[in-house]
Amino acid sequence: MDDISYRIIVDDAARDQAPLATLCGRVFGAFDPGYLDRLASVVDPVLVQALHGDAPIGFKLGYRRGATLFYSWLGGVDPDWRRRGIAEQLTIIQHDRLMALGYATVETRTRANNNAMIILNLRSGFEVRGFEIDAAGNPVVTQRKRLAGPT
Questions:
Q1: Neighbours of 86 (CB within 10 A)
Q2: What is the largest distance, in Å, between two alpha-carbon atoms of the chain?
Q3: Which of 16, 64, 73, 100 is the 20 to 30 Å CA partner of 41?
Q4: Residue 80 DSSP symbol
Q5: Residue 18: left if φ>0, alpha if ψ -120 to 50, beta else—which one?
Q6: Of 3.40.630.30, 3.40.50.410, 3.40.50.2300, 3.40.50.300, which CATH number belongs to 4-146?
Q7: Going edge to edge, which strands form the sheet with 43-52?
Q8: Domain extents in the chain
Q9: Are the beta carbons of 61 and 108 closer than 8 angstroms?
Q10: Shortest CA distance to 122 belongs to which of 136, 140, 141?
């Protein structure tokens, strides 16, 4: 499938902001790289990357939020590479790795107008667990999925 490979990066190596900021700029358009400063303080980050050759074209990034809870914080696919199943494959790889690391639950928050992400999450076994208005006034949906064992 277009010579795409996937790589899992954990702990300190997952904190490298430079390549992430570049990819986030392509994925999200307007993106403040300072948003990634949070990486310095998160616990047990896990980054899953999709690559075309050596070039990152998609990612999922998250971190530990509790003994068995993982927060899938940020992710996306370069617009030139969308609609090829990359986001779904990133999700599968992330969840497989999380189960291997002993996580029981994964949670994510998504802007309510991000229908593609909400639908992908629902297809991947997530359930809607909440709705709120964030500090910037954006409606946000919280979704959670049981990976294994009790939550």
A1: 22
A2: 40
A3: 100
A4: G
A5: alpha
A6: 3.40.630.30
A7: 4-10, 43-52, 55-64, 69-77, 105-111, 139-146, 127-133
A8: 4-146
A9: no
A10: 141
Q: pLDDT for 43-66, tens place per residue? A: 999 999 999 999 999 999 999 999
Give CA–CA dist 117/84, Å, rounded. Answer: 14
Place of tokens 């310095």: 40
> What single-letter amino acid sits at 94?
Q
Give the angle 111-114-116 at the CA atoms, nearest 5°.
Answer: 145
Quick one: CA dihedral 115, 87, 51, 65, positive or negative?
positive
Q: What is the pLDDT of residues 61-99, one digit of tens each?
A: 999 999 999 999 999 999 999 999 999 999 999 999 999
Strands (E), 11-138: 43-52, 55-64, 69-77, 105-111, 127-133
With tokens 């939550």, the residue in question is 151
Contact assessment for residue 91 and residue 147, using Cβ atoms and an 8 Å cutoff: no
Residue type, 120: L
